[in-house]
Amino acid sequence: MAQTRHIAHENVDAAKPCRTAPRLNPNLAHAEGTLGLIQAHIGNHDEAIMHVEKALHLSPKDPNQVIWMVARVVAAVVTDRPQEYLKSCLNVTEHAPNFLPGWRHLAAAHANLDQLDAARAAVVEILRIAPDDRIGTLLDVLPLVHPEGRERFLTGLPKAGLGPCHHMEEVFQNPPQLPFWEAAARGETVDWDQIFDGYESAVDWPSAHY
C-alpha cells in the first residue's frame, strides 16, 4: 500500500503504513527503507537519512539497497545540499554502476557545482546504459514531485549536456512563447516545431496537455 501511494505521488499518505510496520516488527528493513525514500521526497531530510541508515544496518546485503541509497540522493537535492547530493550520487554509482537514475543524478549534481567535465563524463555513462536516453524520460524512472528538487535536477541535466528540456518554467521565463500556447489553448493550429525549437524533450504542463 505504501509503495502504491508513493508511486502515485501521495507521499504523506504513504508514510502512514510505513510508520506502523516497524512498530509491529522493528527488524523490518524494507519498511524502514521505504519510509526513508518517502520522507526524502517529502523533504524531511534528517528523518529520511535516519530510516535509510537503519534499513542498511538491518539488511546490508538487501537487493533493495540501491533504492534506499537513492533516498539519500533525493533528500539532498530536495533540501538543497549540493555537496551531500554529489557524495550520495557517487555512492550510488559506485554501488550499482549500471543503475541509470544514479548517473542521471550524478550528472546533475556535478553540473550544479559547475564541474562540467565530470558532468559530461556522467552523461557518457548515461548513454552507455541507455543510448536513446533523453531528459523527458527521467521522471518516469525517478519522479521528483518536490518543485525545488525537480528544478535543480532539470536545471543540472542540460548543463551536463544531456539536452535542453522544455518544462513549465520555460513559459514564464520566455514571454514570446505565450501567444503560441494561448493559440493552442483556443484549439488553433500551431507550429510545434517552432515552439520546441532548440529543445530535445518536454515535461510538465502545458506540454503534457498536448
Strand adjacency order, main sheet: 1-2
The termini sit apart by 32 Å
Radius of gyration: 19 Å
Architecture (CATH level 2) name of the largest domain: Alpha Horseshoe
Question: How many domains, as an integer?
Answer: 3
CATH top level of the largest domain? Answer: Mainly Alpha
Tell me the major beta sheet. Answer: 2 strands, parallel
What overall form do the CA principal axes indicate?
Answer: elongated
Count of separate DSSP helical elements: 13
Calculate the mean pLDDT score and round it: 82
Structural class: mainly alpha
Q: How helical, in percent, are the residues?
A: 55-70%
Query: What portion of the residues fall into strands of 2 or more residues?
Result: under 5%
CATH topology of the largest domain: Serine Threonine Protein Phosphatase 5, Tetratricopeptide repeat
In short:
This protein starts with a helix and ends in an 8-residue tail after the last strand. It is mostly helical and 210 residues long.
Question: What does it look like?
Answer:
The protein has helices spanning about 1-5, 10-25, 30-40, 45-60, 65-80, 80-95, 100-110, 115-130, 140, 145-160, 170-175, 180-185, 190-195; strands spanning about 165, 200. With about 210 residues, the chain is mostly helical. It has 3 domains: about 1-80, Tetratricopeptide repeat domain (Serine Threonine Protein Phosphatase 5, Tetratricopeptide repeat), CATH 1.25.40; about 85-165, Serine Threonine Protein Phosphatase 5, Tetratricopeptide repeat (Alpha Horseshoe); about 165-210, no CATH class. The chain has a two-stranded parallel ribbon. Helix 2 (about 10-25) packs antiparallel against helix 3 and helix 3 packs antiparallel against helix 4 (about 45-60). The two termini are about 30 Å apart.
